[in-house]
Amino acid sequence: xxxxxxxxxxxxxxxxxxxxxxxxxxxxxxxxxxxxxxxxxxxxxxxxxxxxxxxxxxxxxxxxxxxxxxxxxxxxxxxxxxxxxxxxxxxxxxxxxxxxxxxxxxxxxxxxxxxxxxxxxxxxxxxxxxxxxxxxxxxxxxxxxxxxxxxxxxxxxxxxxxxxxxxxxxxxxxxxxxxxxxxxxxxxxxxxxxxxxxxxxxxxxxxxxxxxxxxxxxxxxxxxxxxxxxxxxxxxxxxxxxxxxxxxxxxxxxxxxxxxxxxxxxxxxxxxxxxxxxxxxxxxxxxxxxxxxxxxxxxxxxxxxxxxxxxxxxxxxxxxxxxxxxxxxxxxxxxxxxxxxxxxxxxxxxxxxxxx
Length: 356
What we know:
By secondary structure, the chain is mainly α.
């Protein structure tokens, strides 16, 4: 009886070699279970990396949107002769090229490795985007090249306003002087008429140039600006000469009139300088028009890139998720088969030991 009990105890305990023998009989299902589980974990990691890359790519696309909008703003400020706007415009172009290169070639972005996404886009979408980008960049650089003319023209306008303000005051004082000295009403009317004429000419020149700043006029009109300014200068000169002939013919020569003469000469010189600068500035104005047009098209293309990336990552994420759950199910099934085979072999060994 004692020998039989010892035999039963040894059978129940089963030595290590017996366990290994049982395990070898079901090793295939166990190995499959482990393999499927490892694949599932790898897929989970890939899915996490893909989600992170997708988020980073969309962030880069968002920066492109921001830079495109900012480019339109700083370009308009550059046309107005804002010195700081030219620095911002150059930086803006560099940022646009940087984000475009990230999408095309990939690279490190905020301590993350961003893969190239250009090849993931359908058709020639990214190529069309680059062509539009190149056009926009060329127009913006044309504005940069016209920096000196634009800054000088903006400064001329400021000085025209100052001289006009001073001339208006001098003419007002002269009109009162003529009226108080009892001269003819024609002389007073001549002074007041020229005062209005000066205001009209300076306002007209400013409107022409500011219209270019706003880049809202047709190119033909921009090219005619120098001729229009020439006509306004001629009108100013005729008005000035008429004033001189009217008042000087009646021996009206005062200090105020001398100062008026100086202001008229200064205003004429400023308007002629503005006339010379206008053709070069017109090229920048035309470039601004095309920059706005390209900007609208570029924004549309960036939206298309964003939508294409979202669609691609959604499809890829769905595919990886399906594979992940499939591997997980296969790992569970293989594990259950392994447990079944292992436990079944164990029962057989125990049963054989019990019969002994």
